[in-house]
Design a protein that fits this description.
8 strands, globular, alpha/beta, eight-stranded parallel beta barrel
Amino acid sequence: VRTNADTPRDAAKARELGAEGIGLCRTEHMFFEGNRIDAFREMICSETVEEREAALEKILPEQQGDFEKLYEALEGNPVTIRFLDPPLHEFVPTEEEDIKKLADAQGKTVEQIKAICDALHEFNPMMGHRGCRLAVTYPEIAKMQTRAVMEAAIEVAEEKGYDIVPEIMIPLVGEKKELKFVKDVVVEVAEQVKKEKNSDMQYHIGTMIEIPRAALTADKIAEEAEFFSFGTNDLTQMTFGFSRDDAGKFLDSYYKAKIYESDPFARLDQEGVGQLVKMAVEKGRATRPNLKCGICGEHGGDPSSVEFCHKVGLNYVSCSPFRVPIARLAAAQAALNNK
């Protein structure tokens, strides 16, 4: 049982409750810390690769510091770091004062900044320009994050003597070539850092399976991915065609009419979404027999979902820190029931 944690405090609490690693570190939360959001907004509003790289360079030491603290808190236990996932519009300023500040920093007018922010608006952002699609469009984001991960891991391993093997997770992949494109960027930077630091550190690159197409083509995707982590929140959303943010408005009627017995975002739908998970595990391991598979959606803390994960051969579940004891108990029961 691992935990979903983005801060050393959450990681320490989860370790105290019995977590054996981090299954999901969401890096986007870190971009709002301190002055980082200003630099990231500069990156979003930049027009050239050079300008974007200069803005990201300001974030790099902070991002590296975040990862160092997580590696220290986990004391050599595995940490899966997910690269930037949300659409860029979530980071742009909305207050007039912040827009003016960004315009001044960029040497642009307020109107120009507003036009850039408006252009980022999407009708369906959860299915828009996010996840690995950002790294395909802006590889410099993945380069910065890779450097931060590798430098942090090497630094802490040397200082503390921990055996650290970074796990880098590329989100929202639906096509093998898409994953390969981002993976090539990651590998190039990781190897460069290893050379600079005279290190032989091993690392793993995997992906989140959260798009039905990824589950259907998991045998191909496993040619590039060393591990799968099922993002069952998005996988449920895309399989049902429900919006996670809006489904609550009508699902009560479905429960009353006995169409559904429970919230599919709280308890894994084993009949539909679960079959995609099972298929992806089987197809992935047909290509890569030692493929490590886990789950990091909210379902990782639900007992019936944990038992299903055990049955289909997942290696771990990851859940929020305070659900770790429940998940551990459910995992133990699943192991006993399915000997």
